[in-house]
Amino acid sequence: MCGVASLVFCLFSILPGDPSRMMLGQRDNEEMRLVIQKKYGFDQPIQKQYLFYLNDLSPISFHSNDPEDFTNVNNHNYTILASASIAEFDVVVKAPYLRESFVRKGTSVASIISDTLPNTFVLAVAAMFIALLLGITLGVYSAINQHKFIDQLLSSVSVLGMALPSFFSAILMAWLFGFVWQKYTGLSMTGSLFEVDDYGNGEYIVWENLILPALTLGIRPLAVVMQLTRNSILDTLNQDYIRTAKAKGLSSIRILFVHALPNALNPVVTSASGWLASMLAGAVFVEYIFGWNGLGKEIVYALNYLDLPLVMGAVLTLSICFVLITIFTDMIYYFLDPRLRS
């Protein structure tokens, strides 16, 4: 993760703009700008700023005892677990600190991410569930009807689904099902998982707002899963052990679902894990168009206002999610492939 953090810092440190001016907004004046630059270390050389950034992210960080120094621990809103003083330094054990938003004064990036990431995760999981359920079903159906009209039709539709850009499909789905056919579907063009009650009774969950964003986000992985399942099933059915099962008189249904399908799912699992990780990051357009209050929508907001700490924190969080999903996928392989257990 140190490499990811370094890459993120290098990418966003070269962007034009003065962070102190972004934080001050309309109150910008030279005196206040200098105070902000000194407080947050923006006046330091870029290599020092990089070290300070890693110091904030590290669970163990080192800080000056000098109260006038901006590296003093009291100048940071850390969640401190333990601390000790060594010579002129304070050694702090803490939760990783993603800093504060430039635009939302006094709001930590971690709190913004914790509020929005669960919504993005729900959307990505729902979209992946739809893609796997329909993709595997249609892929198996297409494989057992190889070279027939339905097979050619499904293959053509899957190619169209893979080529369809997310932002275009999101606009099309929102317009058709949330506006043109709204009286039949009962769905809204925009809306998030949680909405505020008009009478002050707090928030409540609106599950129907999940339908259109999940369907839209699941179109491309559905097309990929369907093609992978079809091709993998056809390859598996030509293996020697399948011929042996047929020679023993096993039924076609048993051969397909007990012997062929489990062994054909390895490439599907690989694709699904990659798509789930990418959907966490790639839900930006879908969330923005449907008004879904997730991390993708926050990234768009942060980019519009050059809120660099929020963008950097979001990218780091999504990178960690990608690593965890990859590890979880390796664990699934252990149960799917008997050769790994031998």
- CATH superfamily name of the largest domain? MetI-like
- Strand order, sheet with most strands: 1-3-2
Overall strand count: 5
Distance between the termini: 32 Å
Which residues sit in consecutive blocks of at least 5 with pLDDT less than 50? none
* Residues in helix, %: 55-70%
The Rg value, from CA coordinates, equals 26 Å
How confident is the prediction overall: mean pLDDT? Answer: 82
- Basic shape: elongated
Word description of this protein:
With 342 residues, the protein is mainly α. The chain has 2 domains: 2-94, no CATH class; 109-341, MetI-like fold (Orthogonal Bundle). The protein is built from 15 helices and 5 strands. The strands form 2 sheets. It has a 3-stranded antiparallel sheet. β4 (194-196) and β5 form a beta hairpin. α13 crosses α14. The longest helix has 36 residues, at 109-144. The mean pLDDT is 82.
How would you concisely characterize the structure shown here?
With 342 residues, the chain is mostly helical.
Quick tags:
342 residues; MetI-like fold; 3-stranded antiparallel β-sheet; 15 helices; mainly alpha; two-stranded antiparallel ribbon
Q: What's the SSE blueprint?
A:
Elements: H1 2-13, H2 19-24, H3 30-40, H4 46-57, E1 60-64, E2 80-86, E3 89-94, H5 109-144, H6 149-163, H7 166-180, H8 182-185, E4 194-196, E5 203-205, H9 211-237, H10 240-247, H11 252-264, H12 266-282, H13 284-290, H14 295-304, H15 308-336
Antiparallel strand pairs: 1-3, 2-3, 4-5
Helix pairs in contact: 1-4, 1-15, 5-6, 5-9, 5-12, 5-15, 6-9, 7-9, 7-13, 9-11, 9-12, 12-15, 13-14, 14-15
